[in-house]
Request: fold
Amino acid sequence: MSNIDQVYFPNPVGKITQPTRTQPSKTKASDISFENVLEQSRWVKFSQHAQERLKARNISFSSEQLQQLEGAVNNVAQKGCKDSLVMMGDAALVISVKNRTVVTAMDRNQIKGNVFTNIDSAVVI
Reply:
Protein backbone atom coordinates (compact mmCIF):
# COMPACT_ATOMS: atom_id res chain seq x y z
CA MET A 1 0.00 0.00 0.00
CA SER A 2 1.24 3.49 -0.75
CA ASN A 3 2.07 6.00 1.94
CA ILE A 4 -1.48 7.18 2.64
CA ASP A 5 -0.54 9.05 5.82
CA GLN A 6 0.67 11.91 3.60
CA VAL A 7 -2.87 12.84 2.53
CA TYR A 8 -4.05 16.15 3.99
CA PHE A 9 -7.52 16.15 5.50
CA PRO A 10 -8.20 19.37 7.42
CA ASN A 11 -11.27 17.93 9.14
CA PRO A 12 -10.82 14.80 11.27
CA VAL A 13 -12.23 11.67 9.71
CA GLY A 14 -14.34 9.57 12.07
CA LYS A 15 -14.23 5.85 12.56
CA ILE A 16 -16.12 3.73 10.04
CA THR A 17 -17.79 0.68 11.54
CA GLN A 18 -17.61 -1.79 8.69
CA PRO A 19 -15.96 -5.21 8.62
CA THR A 20 -12.24 -5.17 7.98
CA ARG A 21 -9.81 -7.77 6.68
CA THR A 22 -8.01 -7.98 9.98
CA GLN A 23 -9.05 -7.49 13.56
CA PRO A 24 -9.25 -3.74 14.25
CA SER A 25 -6.81 -2.41 16.77
CA LYS A 26 -8.22 -0.80 19.88
CA THR A 27 -7.48 2.88 19.43
CA LYS A 28 -9.19 6.09 20.40
CA ALA A 29 -11.01 7.94 17.62
CA SER A 30 -8.36 10.67 17.78
CA ASP A 31 -5.64 8.07 17.07
CA ILE A 32 -7.21 6.80 13.83
CA SER A 33 -5.07 7.52 10.79
CA PHE A 34 -6.46 8.05 7.31
CA GLU A 35 -4.89 4.72 6.35
CA ASN A 36 -7.01 2.94 8.99
CA VAL A 37 -10.14 4.67 7.75
CA LEU A 38 -9.39 3.54 4.19
CA GLU A 39 -8.80 -0.02 5.37
CA GLN A 40 -12.14 0.04 7.14
CA SER A 41 -13.91 1.47 4.09
CA ARG A 42 -13.67 -1.95 2.47
CA TRP A 43 -10.43 -1.29 0.70
CA VAL A 44 -10.98 1.58 -1.73
CA LYS A 45 -7.45 2.92 -2.08
CA PHE A 46 -6.03 6.24 -3.24
CA SER A 47 -3.06 6.18 -5.63
CA GLN A 48 -0.03 8.32 -4.88
CA HIS A 49 -1.10 10.66 -7.69
CA ALA A 50 -4.61 10.98 -6.23
CA GLN A 51 -3.18 11.63 -2.76
CA GLU A 52 -1.04 14.44 -4.14
CA ARG A 53 -4.03 15.97 -5.97
CA LEU A 54 -6.20 15.77 -2.83
CA LYS A 55 -3.55 17.54 -0.80
CA ALA A 56 -2.78 20.18 -3.45
CA ARG A 57 -6.46 20.94 -4.01
CA ASN A 58 -7.39 20.83 -0.32
CA ILE A 59 -10.05 18.14 -0.88
CA SER A 60 -11.17 16.13 2.13
CA PHE A 61 -13.84 13.52 2.76
CA SER A 62 -15.86 12.62 5.82
CA SER A 63 -16.30 9.01 6.88
CA GLU A 64 -19.84 9.16 5.46
CA GLN A 65 -18.49 10.30 2.10
CA LEU A 66 -15.95 7.46 2.11
CA GLN A 67 -18.80 5.02 2.72
CA GLN A 68 -20.74 6.57 -0.19
CA LEU A 69 -17.64 6.23 -2.36
CA GLU A 70 -17.37 2.57 -1.41
CA GLY A 71 -21.03 2.06 -2.32
CA ALA A 72 -20.52 3.75 -5.68
CA VAL A 73 -17.52 1.54 -6.46
CA ASN A 74 -19.52 -1.55 -5.48
CA ASN A 75 -22.41 -0.49 -7.74
CA VAL A 76 -20.30 0.11 -10.83
CA ALA A 77 -18.32 -3.08 -10.19
CA GLN A 78 -21.57 -5.08 -10.16
CA LYS A 79 -22.44 -3.60 -13.54
CA GLY A 80 -19.09 -4.71 -14.99
CA CYS A 81 -17.54 -1.25 -15.29
CA LYS A 82 -13.78 -0.87 -15.39
CA ASP A 83 -13.08 2.85 -15.01
CA SER A 84 -15.56 5.28 -13.51
CA LEU A 85 -15.96 8.98 -12.84
CA VAL A 86 -17.49 9.66 -9.43
CA MET A 87 -18.84 13.16 -8.81
CA MET A 88 -19.05 13.76 -5.07
CA GLY A 89 -19.81 17.23 -3.75
CA ASP A 90 -17.22 19.59 -5.22
CA ALA A 91 -14.88 16.75 -6.20
CA ALA A 92 -14.55 14.51 -9.24
CA LEU A 93 -12.71 11.22 -8.80
CA VAL A 94 -11.54 8.91 -11.56
CA ILE A 95 -11.51 5.36 -10.21
CA SER A 96 -10.06 2.12 -11.48
CA VAL A 97 -12.92 -0.16 -10.46
CA LYS A 98 -10.95 -3.35 -11.06
CA ASN A 99 -8.19 -2.18 -8.69
CA ARG A 100 -10.63 -0.34 -6.37
CA THR A 101 -8.25 2.62 -6.58
CA VAL A 102 -8.91 6.35 -6.93
CA VAL A 103 -6.55 7.32 -9.75
CA THR A 104 -6.94 11.10 -9.67
CA ALA A 105 -9.03 13.80 -8.04
CA MET A 106 -10.18 17.24 -9.15
CA ASP A 107 -12.06 20.03 -7.46
CA ARG A 108 -14.86 22.13 -8.96
CA ASN A 109 -12.38 24.52 -10.64
CA GLN A 110 -10.64 21.70 -12.53
CA ILE A 111 -13.94 19.99 -13.45
CA LYS A 112 -15.30 22.88 -15.52
CA GLY A 113 -14.63 22.45 -19.21
CA ASN A 114 -12.72 19.22 -18.64
CA VAL A 115 -13.21 16.22 -20.92
CA PHE A 116 -13.06 12.91 -19.08
CA THR A 117 -11.70 10.09 -21.24
CA ASN A 118 -11.07 6.41 -20.68
CA ILE A 119 -14.11 5.94 -18.44
CA ASP A 120 -17.05 3.65 -19.04
CA SER A 121 -19.37 4.93 -16.32
CA ALA A 122 -20.19 7.94 -14.18
CA VAL A 123 -21.80 8.20 -10.75
CA VAL A 124 -23.12 11.34 -9.09
CA ILE A 125 -23.29 11.16 -5.29
Q: What stands out?
A: Residues 44 and 70 are 6 Å apart (CA to CA). The chain has one domain: 4-124.
